[in-house]
TrEMBL record, chain A:
InterPro entries: EhaL. It comes from Candidatus Methanobinarius endosymbioticus. The chain crosses the membrane at residues 6-25, 32-52, 58-82, 94-110. It comes from the Archaea. This is Uncharacterized protein. Keywords: Membrane, Transmembrane, Transmembrane helix.
From TrEMBL, chain B:
GO terms for cellular component: plasma membrane. The chain crosses the membrane at residues 17-38, 100-118, 138-157, 177-194, 231-248, 254-274, 281-300. It comes from the Archaea. It is a multi-pass membrane protein. It is found in: Membrane. The keyword Membrane applies. Pfam families: NADHdh (PF00146). The lineage of its organism: Archaea, Methanobacteriati, Methanobacteriota, Methanomada group, Methanobacteria. This is F(420)H(2) dehydrogenase subunit H. Its EC number is 1.12.98.3. One of its GO terms (molecular function) is Methanosarcina-phenazine hydrogenase activity. PANTHER family: FORMATE HYDROGENLYASE SUBUNIT 4 (PTHR43359), FORMATE HYDROGENLYASE SUBUNIT 4-RELATED (PTHR43359:SF1).
Length: 111, 301
């Protein structure tokens, strides 16, 4: 069971990366890189990293969803942004990590 | 009645084992591919290139399964085809011996020896001059890499066993082997470095001979080769981490594998490929220093 969940996570990471790559190439076909940030990617990254860092919190709040499902969704969203075309999705990922780490720290301090 | 229940237990056990093998082989392929993709990405970033996405190696491997397979006129059939199947089979066997059953390291050693023979034969079976050169170099490198793998003797002398499961138990009691036999760990790391892409020691796949023994394998055959490469990378990292870093959690394995891949990428990106003679002599020197030094340390301390 442990190995199976590990396999599911790897598959989710791969699918997320492929989807992210396809979407970003469809959106940005130009031969150069835009430096401005994409708001949708930021939102996806923040949701993904919050879910990944705080899955324990969400499992305790929403009792009927298992941790494996939350981690899988989180990994899909996170790799959707990380897996984007080279040069895209870096700043968004960084913002996602910082915000989710802050939320994790706050929830850890409160509990 | 007892016989029926015993048989049904046996069937369930066998099915569990089969499922375990299947899951572990798929994990080895997917994670190995991702790690090799990461290796390429890190090398590119060090060389100030953007580099391909991390999943590129996996996509590349899968792509070959849908490409047309063509055969060189000079290929010696059916040897040319069967060698790729053998390449794949030995590393799948390594997954079964390693992560699935925690079997004996001696079989992994034997698999590595057969792998060097497969490299040799894959090169010679195509009839290409590049393959032929790679085939000769595979014999050279076998002479150097097999002594590197002989570090198993040190592990046996330290732990009194060659069984991976027992070595893990030993480490759970006495601490990781990397602290007691660090030189042996260094020698094994050199072996992993030799197997990594664009390594200073990877003379069989040096770009001076195009892609070495892989040059004349196309389509599905190349797909099998890339699949085996990914599994081999995963298995070698798994063996290194299990044997020298003791009982690890899945996160521990993941961090360890990513770290070793990053370190090898850093080394490979900053060092040129060595001349075959220099490569072999460096490896043999490191093997002698590592094994001799470990023995000396064991007798002195």
């Amino acid at each position: 069971m442990n190995d199976l969940s590990y396999l599911i996570y790897i598959l989710v990471v791969i699918i997320g990366s492929i989807v992210g790559l396809l979407i970003s190439y469809k959106k940005h076909g130009e031969p150069f890189i835009f430096n401005d940030m994409d708001s949708i990617s930021v939102i996806i990254a923040i949701i993904g990293w919050i879910l990944l860092f705080n899955y324990g919190l969400f499992v305790s709040i929403i009792g009927f969803i298992s941790a494996m499902i939350i981690i899988s969704i989180a990994l899909f969203l996170v790799t959707l942004v990380i897996g984007m075309r080279p040069g895209y999705g870096r700043k968004e990922t960084l913002i996602g990590i910082v915000i989710s780490a802050m939320l994790w720290f706050i929830s850890y301090m409160l509990v | 009645m007892i016989n029926i229940s015993y048989n049904s237990f046996l069937v369930i056990d066998t099915m569990n084992l089969m499922a375990n093998v299947l899951i572990n082989v798929v994990i080895a392929f997917l994670l190995g591919s991702l790690l090799l993709g990461l290796h390429r990405k890190i090398m590119a970033r060090i060389q100030l290139r953007p580099g391909p996405p991390v999943i590129q190696h996996l996509l590349h491997s899968l792509k070959f399964f849908f490409k047309e397979t063509s055969f060189p006129k000079t290929a010696s059939m059916p040897f040319y085809v069967s060698i790729t199947c053998l390449y794949c089979a030995i590393w799948i066997l390594a997954v079964i011996i390693g992560p699935v059953t925690y079997g004996t390291l001696l079989i992994i050693f034997a698999i590595y020896a057969v792998y060097k023979i497969v490299e040799h034969n894959a090169g010679s079976s195509s009839g290409s001059p590049y393959g032929k050169l790679s085939c000769v170099r595979a014999v050279f490198s076998a002479a150097a890499e097999i002594p590197l793998f002989a570090v198993l003797a040190i592990i046996f002398l330290q732990t009194g066993t060659i069984n991976i499961g027992d070595i893990v138990t030993y480490q759970a009691v006495h601490g990781p082997l990397i602290f007691s036999i660090p030189l042996a760990a260094l020698v094994f790391f050199i072996l992993i470095l030799s197997k990594s892409p664009y390594s200073p020691f990877s003379i069989t796949k040096g770009k001076d001979i195009i892609s070495g023994f892989e040059t004349e394998h196309f389509g599905v055959l190349r797909g099998y080769m890339m699949l085996s490469e990914s599994i081999a990378w995963y298995v070698l990292l798994w063996v290194f981490l299990t044997v020298f870093f003791g009982p690890l959690s899945i996160n521990g394995y993941l961090i360890g594998m990513v770290s070793i891949t990053a370190i090898t990428a850093l080394i490979n990106a900053t060092t040129p490929i060595l001349n075959p003679n220099h490569s072999v002599m460096s490896q043999i020197t490191l093997a002698i220093v590592g094994i001799g030094g470990s023995l000396l340390l064991m007798f002195i301390v």
